[in-house]
């Protein structure tokens, strides 16, 4: 393996500073020299060592192994280099941050089929609705609605367009009139969602004559658990609001009734997103290819 050992101090500076700018200042060189040096080192290993965005810098799993190996005796470093060098087999831990409303991704079959096809990859999936920098937090990828993904990320669609639905059970509607307009929801018992206790409940979004608007409902029950919202609606607890994948099976069986359909337009759906393509780890590339094959079912 032809590794320029002069690049290792540069890598160490980036690993310890978590910043190309700070590493450049520490070494007395330009930020561009740091960036080019890391790219040359990654090309030599054939794998991504440093995840970087416009907001943060963090080591990949391979970068962490290299960083740890540099504390070994010199006699062990060459063998450690061989371990860092990527082969074509997807392996290692793949960390993914997924929004709780990504029903298609979290439903089971997509992830189960990926795990079966790639037994050397261990999936570490955190379901969270908090907004944060996945690179700074040490994740390989995330799943969110396309409209809220940062512009410097690469995004792969998981399915087709999405649509919100307003639903209630037949039992609830037997004793309460159907709302004819979204603004009538304020007079109904509603089940709302919010991402965390310190934020206001999500405002339900609609469209009329091509003009978007939202309704600030006053939910009698508020939760951050989509499954609880579903269970409460099925139990006649009130009207609730979420993406169509959550409710479709229960609409089809008649356990829930769809309301206000004419006010609910389609919008871009969920995406798997990640920072960059160059020298991508095989484990992440395998997941992207799996998602693309999965998405082809909708096209």
UniProtKB/TrEMBL annotation:
Domain HTH lysR-type, first and last residues per copy: 3-60
Listed name of the protein: LysR substrate-binding domain-containing protein
GO MF annotations in UniProt: DNA-binding transcription factor activity; sequence-specific DNA binding
Keyword vocabulary terms for this entry: DNA-binding, Transcription, Transcription regulation
UniProt superkingdom: Bacteria
PANTHER family: HTH-TYPE TRANSCRIPTIONAL REGULATOR, HTH-TYPE TRANSCRIPTIONAL REGULATOR PGRR
One of the protein's GO biological processes: DNA-templated transcription
Protein species of origin: Pseudenterobacter timonensis
Coiled-coil spans in chain: none
Family: Belongs to the LysR transcriptional regulatory family.
InterPro entries (alphabetical): LysR-type_TF_proteobact-type, LysR_HTH_N, LysR_subst-bd, WH-like_DNA-bd_sf, WH_DNA-bd_sf
């Amino acid at each position: 393996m032809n590794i320029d050992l002069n690049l290792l101090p540069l890598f160490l500076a980036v690993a310890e500073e978590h910043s190309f700018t700070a590493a450049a200042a520490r070494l007395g060189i330009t930020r561009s020299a740091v960036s080019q040096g890391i790219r040359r080192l990654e090309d030599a290993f054939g794998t991504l060592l440093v995840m970087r965005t416009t907001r943060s810098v963090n080591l990949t799993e391979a970068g962490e192994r290299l960083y740890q190996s540099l504390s070994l005796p010199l006699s062990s470093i060459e063998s450690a280099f061989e371990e860092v060098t990527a082969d074509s087999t997807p392996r290692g831990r793949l960390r993914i941050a997924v929004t709780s409303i990504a029903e298609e991704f979290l439903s089971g079959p997509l992830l189960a089929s990926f795990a079966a096809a790639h037994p050397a990859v261990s999936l570490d999936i955190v379901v969270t609705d908090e907004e944060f920098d996945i690179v700074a937090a040490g994740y390989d990828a995330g799943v969110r609605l396309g409209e809220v993904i940062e512009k410097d990320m690469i995004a792969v669609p998981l399915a087709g367009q999405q649509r919100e639905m307003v639903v209630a059970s037949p039992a609830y509607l037997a004793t309460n009139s159907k709302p004819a307009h979204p603004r009538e929801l304020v007079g109904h018992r509603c089940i709302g969602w919010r991402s965390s206790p310190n934020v206001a409940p999500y405002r339900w979004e609609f469209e009329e004559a091509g003009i978007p608007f939202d309704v600030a409902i006053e939910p009698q029950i508020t939760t951050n658990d989509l499954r609880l919202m579903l269970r409460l609606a099925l139990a006649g607890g009130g009207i609730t609001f979420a993406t169509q994948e959550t409710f479709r099976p229960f609409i089809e069986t008649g356990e829930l009734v769809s309301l206000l359909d004419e006010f609910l337009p389609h919008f871009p759906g969920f995406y798997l997103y990640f920072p960059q393509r160059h020298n991508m780890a095989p484990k992440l590339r395998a997941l992207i290819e799996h998602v693309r094959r999965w998405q082809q079912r909708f096209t």
